[in-house]
């Protein structure tokens, strides 16, 4: 059955698509801009002449930036903290959200409110640093993981989602002799994939983009994350461009279009930082929307 659209319906659709198309372009253009500038001739990019289409395509910017000292180890640290940190956060959020949804939990309301309070009060940077030092977490890999395991907002989202699971399903499993952990692993985890995927993408983006924890807690260069290393390089773009240009005799005769500039360094580093998330996010997008909607609507 087809519904005939009136003239006003077509006008509304045209206006709707036009507005959302413009908003999409506004959001996507900054990413497109840094990508084409990182691939274009460096002299044109530095002069601000690359705005819509790439000019003088080359990949030398990436080959030079990837040669920077400490980059492979920093990538390993960032990938490790993202994978391990995301897995720990997802499991902690899933289990605590499940437990807070159980009415039989000992002093459930007290512990739930105790957790909620941490969303509104923060000890501050100096007390946090002192706590990390007392716990001997400074200059260790686990300073990236443990402080981010318990996230109150994620737990609230999972709790709301778990409460939408039919109680009869839990009761039937309990009658059949399933314990707390059995119900958690056999019922809650399989049925909570949308909200857990949402928590996973939040946690992964946060872990991948984080650099302040390295700045505060890490002095060992072997534990530098990729974001922090690129942040330091970004702040030193002028001197770094000079260093890269003079790094070898064979490169001294390179054309002006491929000689490194502060602009080319900044653009290339920005792409390296953003690109992994741009590839990962679309894979989780369908779970992201579904998880938010089911976790937020009850009844």
Task: Give an overview of the whole structure.
The chain has 299 residues and is an all-alpha fold. The protein has one domain (59-296): MetI-like (MetI-like fold, Orthogonal Bundle). It contains 15 helices and no strands. The chain has helices spanning 7-39, 42-46, 60-65, 71-100, 108-117, 125-134, 152-163, 167-175, 180-191, 193-209, 212-217, 226-235, 237-245, 249-252, 262-296. The longest helix has 35 residues, at 262-296.
In a few lines, what is going on in this structure?
This protein is mainly alpha-helical. Helix content is 70%, strand content 0%.
- C-alpha geometry: flat
Q: What series of H and E elements makes up the topology?
A: HHHHHHHHHHHHHHH
> Per CATH, what is the topology?
MetI-like fold
Beta-strand content estimate: under 5%
The top-level CATH class is Mainly Alpha
Number of domains: 1
The unreliable regions are 249-254
**Total beta strands:** 0
How would you summarize the topology of this molecule?
Layout: H1 7-39, H2 42-46, H3 60-65, H4 71-100, H5 108-117, H6 125-134, H7 152-163, H8 167-175, H9 180-191, H10 193-209, H11 212-217, H12 226-235, H13 237-245, H14 249-252, H15 262-296
Please supply descriptive tags for the structure shown above.
299 residues; mainly alpha; MetI-like fold; 15 helices; 0% strand
């Amino acid at each position: 059955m087809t519904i005939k659209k009136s003239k006003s319906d077509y006008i509304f659709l045209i206006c709707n698509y036009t507005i959302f198309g413009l908003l999409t372009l506004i959001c996507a253009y900054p990413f497109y801009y840094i990508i084409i500038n990182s691939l274009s001739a460096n002299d044109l990019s530095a002069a601000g002449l690359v705005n819509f289409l790439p000019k003088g395509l080359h990949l030398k910017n990436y080959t030079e930036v990837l040669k920077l000292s400490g980059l492979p180890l920093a990538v390993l640290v960032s990938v490790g903290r993202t994978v391990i940190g995301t897995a720990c956060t997802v499991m902690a959020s899933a289990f605590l959200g499940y437990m807070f949804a159980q009415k039989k939990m000992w002093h459930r309301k007290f512990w739930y409110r105790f957790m909620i309070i941490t969303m509104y009060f923060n000890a501050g940077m100096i007390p946090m640093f002192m706590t990390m030092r007392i716990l001997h977490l400074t200059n260790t890999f686990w300073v990236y993981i443990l402080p981010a395991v318990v996230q109150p907002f994620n737990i609230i989202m999972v709790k709301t989602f778990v409460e939408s699971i039919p109680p009869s399903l839990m009761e039937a499993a309990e009658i059949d002799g399933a314990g707390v952990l059995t119900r958690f692993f056999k019922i809650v985890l399989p049925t909570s994939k949308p909200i857990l995927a949402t928590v996973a993408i939040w946690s992964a983006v946060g872990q991948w983009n984080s650099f302040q924890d390295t700045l505060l807690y890490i002095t060992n260069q072997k534990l530098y994350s990729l974001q922090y290393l690129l942040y330091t390089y970004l702040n030193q773009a002028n001197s770094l461009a000079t260093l890269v240009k003079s790094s070898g005799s064979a490169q001294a005769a390179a054309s002006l279009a491929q000689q490194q500039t502060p602009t080319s360094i900044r653009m290339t580093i920005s792409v390296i930082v953003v690109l992994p998330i741009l590839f990962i996010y679309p894979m989780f997008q369908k779970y992201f929307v579904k998880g938010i909607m089911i976790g937020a609507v009850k009844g």
